[in-house]
Amino acid sequence: MNHIIELQRVWKRYDTGGEVVEALKDVDFHADPGEFVAVMGPSGSGKSTMLNVLGLLDTPTEGTVSLDGQDVTDLSDREMTVHRKRFIGFIFQSFHLIPTLSALENVEMPTLFGDDPTARDRATHLLERVGLGERLDHRPDQLSGGQKQRVAIARALINEPRILLADEPTGNLDRKTGRSVLDLFDEIRREDDVAVIAVTHDPQLGDYADRTVELIDGRIQ
Amino acid sequence: MSVLDDLFRRVPALLMARRNLSRNRIRSGLAVLGIIIGVLAIASLGMFGTTLRTGATQQLGDIGNEISVSPNFQEGIEELTERDVDEIRRAVTDGAVVPVRSESKLVSRGDRQTVTTVYGMENPGALYEAEQGRVPDRLRQGALVGSGTAGLLDVEPGNTISVDGRTYRVAAVLAEQQGISLVSPNNAVIVPIEDVNGTGYSQVVVSADSGQAANESAVAIREALNEREERVSVFELQSITAGINEFFGILNAFLIGIGSISLVVAGVSILNVMLMSTIERRQEIGVLRAVGVQRGDVIRMILAEAGLLGVAGGVIGAILAVGAGVALNAFVLNDPLATFQAANLLYIVLAVGFGVGTSVLSGLYPAWKAANERPVEALRK
After folding, report:
1. Domains of chain B: which residue ranges?
2. DSSP element (H, E) containing A162
3. Mean pLDDT, range B236-260, rounded to an integer
4. Are B187 and B134 in contact, with CB atoms under 8 Å apart?
5. Nearest by CB to A112, which of B12, B379, B381?
6. Locate the ABC3 transporter permease C-terminal domain: which residues (chain B) (predicted)?
7. Alpha-carbon gap, residue B363 to B209, rounded angstroms
8. pLDDT at residue number B150
9. Average pLDDT of span B126-134
């Protein structure tokens, strides 16, 4: 099998004060290296929960999660953190850059805690690649929305992940800027052989995806 | 790359901490101020105690090193004999023995005159120092005048004074003795011992090199002279000075205790600041965790923040405390350099240590809380 990530019969239940909410119901999902998968669905359909399970931020109530052929369902917090760092890059709707750090430092941030002598060079190179070579020392508040998201993408790529998880990556951007970000995703997917999984309700994103998965009420349609 | 950049590269928690603290300068500044006050309170109260102790010790002078042997009037002994003095000399191994005779006499110079105590001493050099002139080792002729009497009669070395009609050349005016003294020279005149009437001595002063030597001498003198009958009473002040020292020790501990309370308050304010700032940065910490930063690193980062607040407050507080100490010692002891002594250094180190310790301790709970938040919860909008 060459799926880089796979969910098998995954259930996620939340106990919200006596009432059990089923956010994911028997979800089977996979993505392959170099594939761009869009997960679409209305809000409350369980998209974010699915992304959290894929990103090893949350564990399923039932079912298994496999990463690069390895069962990662029941790892400790420490191991999950190590796997996140090694395999997964995150991109958020509201960018989540650290306001006190420069663009370059934000990109370096995932490597800060740990001995990584080439991190600064890689970060510089990545920022040049996303077209921000001139803005290395700018703080996030000196950057536009599209530029912030490019910094966030560079940050997600710093550890050469196998999977890029994007939560509404174009949600806070205008159409044109969103398109340029999606072009960047397409390029990364092709050149770096990275699986891109984007959760969205932006129909524009569907044009870029190799495959679109629809999630309604916690079930894949 | 500066040294600081290099340090930040090596210890990324410090870089993050430094940046986070600069985010809300006023808040960080107020937290530091709390620590400054706490450190200043502990260090300067400690130094205040040292100053009090030094001042009191100066007032007491060398009295702890001196003992006075006088005849035991209750046993009918009115003066000490030559034999007693010999026995005292034998008993004292380490210190000068000064037999004293005293009388009240009329002292005059020109038309000024006063009735004052006249001490007869063979070797006053063991007890007194001159302010003007010279105190001879053996006083065979001439007189030494205490500073008070000298002022009253307006004399200086080389003048002549008359004591009960006998003329003396003044050899020295003695330095004013600040502290309490067994035989205070300030309002007295000292003449050769043969010139004071009598065969015995009214008291014998023993001046030892240390309080302990004085104490040993006192014990030896009691053993030697009071074996068969209680011939002499030995007066030593060493027990009093020891008691005073102990009192100042307790006073110091009390003062530092009060100072510590302010540091505890500062600790609570740091706890509050750190808790607020970690709650505000919940999402950021969530992102850190999501991109692969371990719990331990988050804890280190927040402890580094608290530690930086503590170090900043401690250093500034220590500098201010030294300033306060210099001012206090300049004012109370007229000796600003008295600030720089081992005991004070200890108080400063103690205060800074307490300050940093309190800060880091106060950072523990916020750090633990931030690190243990699940990233999913933290990232939820």
Report:
1. 3-59+243-379, 73-230
2. none
3. 83
4. no
5. B12
6. 258-373
7. 53
8. 87
9. 84
Could you give the CA distance from residue A169 to residue B98 in angstroms, rounded to a whole number?
Answer: 98
What's phi and psi for A84, nearest 5 deg? -60, -45
Q: Could you tell me the CA-to-CA distances from B177 to B59, B69, B125, B256 in Å, in that order?
A: 9, 21, 14, 33
Long-range contacts of the stretch B123-128 (C-beta < 8 A, 24+):
B123/B96, B123/B98, B124/B98, B124/B185, B124/B190, B126/B96, B126/B97, B126/B98, B126/B207, B127/B66, B127/B96, B127/B98, B127/B183, B127/B185, B127/B205, B127/B207, B128/B174, B128/B175, B128/B177, B128/B185, B128/B190
Looking at the predicted complex, does its ipTM rise above 0.95? no
Nearest to B284 among A77, A86, A98 (CB): A98
- For helices A103-112 and B12-23, the axis angle rounded to 10 degrees is 130
What's the pTM value of the predicted model, to 2 decimals? Answer: 0.74
- Location of structure tokens 């043969």: B194
| Paired sense of beta strands B166-174 and B188-191, if any | unpaired
Interacting residues of B283 by C-beta distance below 8 A, sequence separation 6+: A96, B378, B379
Is the Cβ–Cβ distance between A155 and A122 less than 8 Å? no
In order of B89, B106, B165, B191, B236, the CA distances from B139 in angstroms are: 19, 20, 19, 7, 26
Considering only CA atoms, which of B302, B376, B381, B284 is closest in space to residue A101?
B284
Characterise B61 by phi-psi region: left (phi > 0), alpha (psi -120 to 50), beta (else): left
- Candidates B284, B297, B290; CA nearest to B367 is B297
Please give the full DSSP string across B255-302, using - where no structure is assigned. Answer: HHHHHHHHHHHHHHHHHHHHHHHHHHTHHHHHHHHHTT--HHHHHHHH
Chain B hits for A101, CB-CB cut-off 8 Å, are: 16, 19
CA-nearest residue to B283 within chain A is: A96
A75: contact with B, CB 8 A cutoff: no
Give the number of other CB atoms < 10 A from CB of residue B278.
25
Which of B283, B290, B293 lies closest to A57 in CB terms?
A: B290
> How far is B291 from chain A, CA to nearest CA, in Å?
6
Quote the domain boundaries for residue A29. 5-220
**Burial class, A177, CB count within 10 angstroms (exposed 0-12 / middle 13-18 / buried 19+):** middle
Q: Which of A160-164, B237-241, B292-296 has the lowest mean pLDDT?
A: B237-241
Shortest CA distance from B17: residue in chain A: A100
Residue B67's SS3 state is strand
A186 phi/psi in degrees, rounded to 5: -60, -40
The tokens for A87 are 């395999």
Number of CB atoms found within 10 A of residue B180's CB: 12
Number of domains in chain A: 1
Q: How far apart are CA B218 and CA B222, in angstroms?
A: 6
Whether B381 shows a pLDDT value over 60: the answer reads: no
Q: What is the mean pLDDT of residues B27-56?
A: 89
Residue A124 clears pLDDT 90, i.e. is over it? yes
How far, in Å, CA of A110 to CA of A39, rounded?
Answer: 26
CATH code, domain carrying A55: 3.40.50.300
